[in-house]
């Protein structure tokens, strides 16, 4: 009667950013990779994303941003996870960022940042290699 | 170890609750131990099932129901089921999108579940997850099934009140006399009632209910019908009053009705669990020993037949039950 863990991932877009094509494609790609994807959609506050991630017991949060407010929003999500004692949930980000922001995001806890030109296969391979069900 | 976790669940600790539901979903043996300890603490929450075809507005309606209950100071647990891909085993769980206004309300706990190949509208973990939300102290547990067709009636076994959500213009009047999902509703909701045909749908339902009255199923409760426009929050208060009326019927009208309901529910719960356990135990063994592959090859090459294999398995592993 041994169980088997399934990877659970939250895909969301924080802030006032209506560009959800990318996050939808990522959600669908993760589905096709066999993950359970909690898709929270557009216009989420960091608080909403973190509480959803906790209630859904996900292993990974993937945030998308194409509207420029990523530094503040992504950092707030990382802070809230710590506050809630949930920093064991891994973080990744994707979208359009100035080059110099990528190391900043990594420094605040984002394990990987995916930028334009990335392939879907590579993203899935990266997740499989780096994120294990907790 | 499990004692400590049980205490945390009873105290409503969100992370522990979330993890336990995951463990139930993933069939982790330790989850069983905690469920055993929680069982005496369950039975306080009122469980409402919400079912209906894809796209009728179940999630939006649930969102409004949460809003209504929160407005009355009640705490709410929500389980929302979405389908698992039969090809990849993955799933998109998107019901939360419609319930966003409650995401930062700590009086609401929303959890998405994937069917993982299970048919019937729920997941094998749903009943356990209801027990957890009940034990953590939620006053109401709302269970939204996967979008269903005609025969996925599992929710009835788990809920006190089952809502069937429809929209105007779904099928002709033949649909209303078919067996299956329409027979199991305690309360019917015609959502998107601003659309053409709402009155006709209501009439068809009334006719169906009228004809079924004699049978005295469901303790003699006559199903009720409500019209809503969940997006605009129209008709939701009336619907909630209708649910309370069914609750009163169940709990206050006649003790025999409640006893019957609880016996039915206990029977289903135990039966489902035994099925699950027996099949899992036998399947794990057959797969581990390689017999399963052999049986399948035997069938493909017509060396044997499924009836004989099944009888042989029962003879070998369940022989005590045969007298």
Report what the structure shows.
The complex is a heterodimer of chains A (134) and B (323). Chain A is an alpha/beta fold and 134 residues long. Chain A has five helices and five strands, in the order βαβαβαβαβα. Chain A has one domain: Cobalamin-binding domain (Rossmann fold), CATH 3.40.50. In chain A, strands 2-1-3-4-5 form a five-stranded parallel sheet, sandwiched between helices. In chain A, α2 (46-55) crosses α3 (70-83). The relative contact order of chain A is 0.20. The mean pLDDT of chain A is 93. The radius of gyration of chain B is 21 Å and the shape is globular. The model of chain B has no long low-confidence stretch (mean pLDDT 90). Chain B has three domains: 1-41; 43-253, 3-Layer(aba) Sandwich (Rossmann fold), CATH 3.40.50; 270-321, no CATH class. Helices cover 46% and strands 13% of the residues of chain B. With 323 residues, chain B is of the alpha/beta class. The chains are: A alpha/beta (134), B alpha/beta (323). The interface between A and B is large, with 34 and 37 residues.
Runs of chain A with pLDDT <50, length 5+?
none
Low-confidence stretches of chain B: none
Beta-strand percentage range of chain B? 5-15%
- Name the average pLDDT of chain A: 93
* The CATH fourth-level homologous superfamily of the largest domain in chain B: P-loop containing nucleotide triphosphate hydrolases
Number of domains of chain B: 3
Cα-based radius of gyration of chain B, to the nearest Å: 21 Å
Number of helices of chain B: 11
Strand order of the largest sheet of chain A: 2-1-3-4-5
Q: Give the SSE order of chain A as H and E letters.
A: EHEHEHEHEH
- Name the helicity range of chain B: 40-55%
> Architecture of the largest domain in chain B, according to CATH?
3-Layer(aba) Sandwich
Output the helix-strand order of chain B.
Answer: HHHEHEEEHEHEEHEHHHH
Total number of helices of chain A = 5
Strand residue percentage of chain A: 15-25%
């Amino acid at each position: 009667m041994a169980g088997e863990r399934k990877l659970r991932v939250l895909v969301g877009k924080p802030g006032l950013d209506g560009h959800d094509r990318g996050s939808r494609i990522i959600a669908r790609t993760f589905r096709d990779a066999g993950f359970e994807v909690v898709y929270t959609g557009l216009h989420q506050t960091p608080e909403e994303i973190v509480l959803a991630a906790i209630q859904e017991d996900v292993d990974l949060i993937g945030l998308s941003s194409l509207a420029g407010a990523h530094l503040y929003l992504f950092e707030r999500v990382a802070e809230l996870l710590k506050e809630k004692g949930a920093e064991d949930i891994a973080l990744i980000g994707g979208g359009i960022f100035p080059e110099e922001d990528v190391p900043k995001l990594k420094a605040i806890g984002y394990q990987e940042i995916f930028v334009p030109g990335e392939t879907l296969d590579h993203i899935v391979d990266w997740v499989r290699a780096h994120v294990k069900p907790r | 170890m499990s004692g400590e976790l049980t205490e945390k669940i009873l105290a409503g600790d969100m992370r522990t609750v979330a993890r336990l539901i995951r463990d139930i979903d993933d069939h982790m043996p330790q989850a069983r131990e905690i469920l055993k300890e929680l069982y005496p603490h369950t039975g306080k929450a009122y469980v409402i099932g919400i079912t209906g075809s894809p796209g009728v507005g179940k999630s939006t309606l649930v969102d409004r129901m949460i809003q209504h209950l929160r407005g009355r100071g009640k705490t709410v647990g929500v389980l929302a089921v979405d389908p698992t891909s039969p090809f990849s085993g993955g799933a998109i769980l998107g019901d939360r999108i419609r319930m966003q206004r409650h995401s930062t309300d700590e009086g609401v706990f929303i959890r998405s579940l994937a069917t993982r190949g299970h048919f019937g509208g729920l997941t094998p973990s749903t009943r356990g997850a209801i027990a957890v939300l009940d034990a953590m102290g939620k006053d109401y547990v709302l269970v939204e099934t996967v979008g269903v067709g005609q025969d996925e009636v599992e929710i009835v076994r788990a809920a006190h009140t089952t809502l069937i959500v429809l929209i105007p213009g779904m099928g002709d009047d033949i649909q209303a006399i078919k067996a299956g999902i329409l027979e199991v509703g305690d309360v019917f909701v015609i959502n998107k009632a601003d659309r053409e045909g709402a009155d006709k749908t209501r009439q068809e339902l009334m006719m169906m209910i009228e004809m079924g009255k004699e049978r005295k199923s469901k303790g003699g409760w006559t199903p009720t019908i409500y019209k809503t426009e969940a997006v605009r929050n129209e008709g939701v208060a009336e619907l909630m009053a209708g649910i309370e009326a069914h609750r009163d019927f169940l709990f206050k009208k006649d003790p025999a009705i409640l006893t019957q309901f609880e016996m039915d529910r206990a029977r289903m719960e135990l039966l489902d669990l035994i099925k699950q356990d027996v099949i899992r135990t036998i399947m794990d063994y057959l797969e581990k020993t390689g017999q399963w592959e052999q049986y399948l090859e035997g069938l493909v090459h017509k060396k044997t037949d499924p009836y004989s294999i099944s009888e042989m398995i029962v003879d070998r592993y369940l022989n005590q039950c045969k007298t």
